[in-house]
Protein: Protein AmbD
Organism: Streptomyces poonensis
Amino acid sequence: MSSSTSLLRDDVALTEGRPPLLSVSGDAREWTTRHRDALRAVVAEHGAVLVRGLGLSDRTQTGAVFQLLADRLMPEKEAFAPRQAYADGVHSSTAWPPNQQMCMHHELSYTLEFPGLMLFACLTAPTEGGATTVADAEAVLTALPTELTERFEREGWILTRSYNDEIGATLEEAFGTDDRGAIEAYCRVHAIEFAWQDDGSLRTRQRRSAVVRHPVTGRRCWFNQIAFLNEWTMDPEVREYLVDVYGDEGLPFNTRYGNGDPIGPDVVEAINDVYTAHTRREPWRAGDLLLVDNIRTAHSREPFEGAREVLVGLADPVRFSDVSVTLEGNAR
């Protein structure tokens, strides 16, 4: 182990209920260049780390730091809500109402290639709330009811989506194009069932594993967006409105058991309760940097007030076929 790695490990503050915290000083690019491997080793050990003191203040500087930290930055495909893409693999936070909770999830856990590492940088901290919280996916899997996890591990989970021009991500935002032929080709390659509706909208269905093995440790992790993208996690008034306008099958997104059975509100509540019990939070400060192992650690965004700018980097793509323990990633 290098002296740099040992130094960072010794400096990480571990406090119950908070993510691992590393307080540093110095020029952001120089510090990251010098400590890049050691910092990634800390993430490998703890699953996440919040670095405080780098003074990240603009997109160009942040993009350079993201490039230094990542093996490879990746674009976003199949987004469930719009976000703005900046140069060099730097994205805005997902557009999500500031007064609503963005529940725990693993980024793009429904795609066949997803980021293994998430990078977050706070340029403007909100006046209240808005923390990006984290939760250990191994601990969550252990804490969930056994009969529930065994069923999901056996069957997987299904994500259904309905794309239109009024709610959620548009076709172009999700697929990078609105050309039907290109979208259909993408869906076929990525094991997504699809059906065009009479009004020109698109409905899709994909079945994925709910539990995966970490590619480095081999440990089983709860890895999905079953609760977050389920209808019962929506604000009740929003759900009622969407069902009234678009029908049960026209919701922008919803989740089901792998055999197609609906998931009840009791199951969604149970999953979110376990996430809540394992949540670690630290309020953002301007200039903070957060690194998250996207397989081992779930993340969320809490409601907030005031301006908030958090940039996001999706890094180090992982293929689902390399970590799935129950399915081959095929829809049915």
In short: The chain has two domains: 3-95+113-135+284-299+308-314, 140-273. Residues 209 and 269 are 20 Å apart (CA to CA).
